[in-house]
Amino acid sequence: MSADDFISMMSSLGFVGDPLVRTQHLIGAASHEWVRAAHQRYLDAELTTVSGRGHGHGNAKHWYKKIGGIWKLAGVRPEMYWVEHDLSTIFLEESPKQ
Predict the structure, then answer these.
(1) pLDDT digits (tens, 9 = 90+) for 9-31
(2) What is the separation of C-alpha 47 from the centre of its chain, rounded to a whole number of angstroms?
(3) Which of 24, 56, 74, 89 could form a disulfide with 65 if both were Cys (CB 3.0 to 4.6 A apart)?
(4) Rounded to two decimals, what is the model's pTM?
(5) What is the mean pLDDT of the chain?
(6) Known catalytic residue: 25?
(7) Is 32 a residue of the active site?
(8) Is residue 62 classed as helix, strand or coil in its secondary structure?
(9) CA-to-CA distance for 63 and 72, rounded, in angstroms?
């Protein structure tokens, strides 16, 4: 997947580009990344009422490759160990009309 395609996918309305979704990713040591990713979906653009929560706990392995003398991200393999709340309520195909 190209970098542009990856950025487009990650920032889409069906993922973290949704204006009603807020995330926080807490990452551990550089040699081995332990991840806790907190996600909340809100009812409207004022972000005053939480409609869903889903927090993931896991590990993310990254690969890097030197291209033209510059290190670039070459791959990611996330592993989810457990989830708090209901992650399926966070990322919808399309955000509700605002």
Answers:
(1) 889 998 899 999 999 887 766 66
(2) 19
(3) 74
(4) 0.74
(5) 86
(6) yes
(7) no
(8) strand
(9) 9
